[in-house]
Amino acid sequence: MILRYRSGEEILKGDRVLFHRNPAEVEQVSSDPDSNDPETRWFMEEYGGGVLILDPMVSGRTFVSAAEIDECEDLEFVSRA
């Protein structure tokens, strides 16, 4: 499964984003159920995948499930790390 921003770019770990108009970073991308990473597998089992956003100015960490990404107007791609 490939997760994409509303603008069409693939979501990758380390991406610089705006989250609720605040500078943030994609800390984790969970889209591979066969991953060796236990955190990725847990997010896949619990939520069907998604992304963990690091927003130190406001919310700390926020998980956006794969099902919500297409409609998440508050997640905007800025640049690659």
Topology:
Layout (H helix, E strand, L loop, with lengths): L15 E4 L2 E9 L7 H10 L2 E6 L4 E6 H4 L5 E5 L2
Provide a brief overview of the structure.
The protein is of the alpha+beta class and 81 residues long. The protein has 2 helices and 5 strands. Strands 4-3-2-1-5 form a 5-stranded antiparallel sheet.
What does this structure look like?
The chain is of the alpha+beta class and 81 residues long. It contains 2 helices and 5 strands; from the N terminus they run E-E-H-E-E-H-E. It has a 5-stranded antiparallel beta sheet. It is globular, with a radius of gyration of 12 Å. The model has no long low-confidence stretch (mean pLDDT 91).
Helix-strand category: alpha+beta
Gross geometry: globular
Sheet having the most strands? 5 strands, antiparallel
Q: Give me the oligomer status.
A: single chain
Terminal Cα separation, in Å?
22 Å
The share of residues in extended strands comes to 35-45%
Low-confidence parts: none
pLDDT average, as an integer? 91
Helix content: 10-25%
Provide the spatial order of strands within the biggest beta sheet: 4-3-2-1-5
- Run of helices and strands: EEHEEHE
Number of strands: 5
Helix tally? 2
Round the Cα radius of gyration to an integer and report it.
12 Å
